[in-house]
Amino acid sequence: MKKNIFIMGDSYSTYDGYIPKGYSFYYSDERTENPIVRGVEKTWWNILAVENNLNITINDSFSGSTICNTVRENHSVDSSFISRMDKYISENFFTENKISTMFIFGGTNDSWIDAPIGTLKYSDWTDDELKCVLPAFCHLINRAKEVVEDVIVIINTDLKQEITKGFIDACEKNKIKYLCLKEIDKENGHPTELGMRQISEQVTECLHKK
Questions:
Q1: Rounded to whole angstroms, how far apart are CA atoms 59 and 4?
Q2: How far apart are CA 118 and CA 197, in angstroms?
């Protein structure tokens, strides 16, 4: 039987028609600007699912979304990773759906929009702290661990150094598996078809690592 996976991401993990209705997307069948990914079959997450016999229960990816509650001007705070996670938990999604592995792939927009970075904090977060990247990330993985036993954090290339280091430190502190991507082919800051394949291969290796 296929194992169920849950993906929480940003533009890198979107494809029109395969994410929740109303979410912003980056990749689609109609996209005409590079990078063009010709078909959902070429996305990193679809390749991962097909080649590892996984069932994607939900791909909760929102283009332009940040982990923290400092969001882009045209986004509401409901788009943030921590808001979306809290919503799924409050609606009992994880009690009604058995998820084997959750993949969290974000931080790119936090880095791009110069969201305040803050410092690592592992409990008792204030609203102001959740507007900062590192405490929000700690909150996110803490909540993820509450509902899914196997959590894998995918850390993009080209993030601010303080964000990458903070993510790694938080994952190690919480004993969460993480992957620092390497040498991903991109155009305009986003994966090409080759980049998608490279991400999938690196995630697959991480998935099977003991």
A1: 11
A2: 33
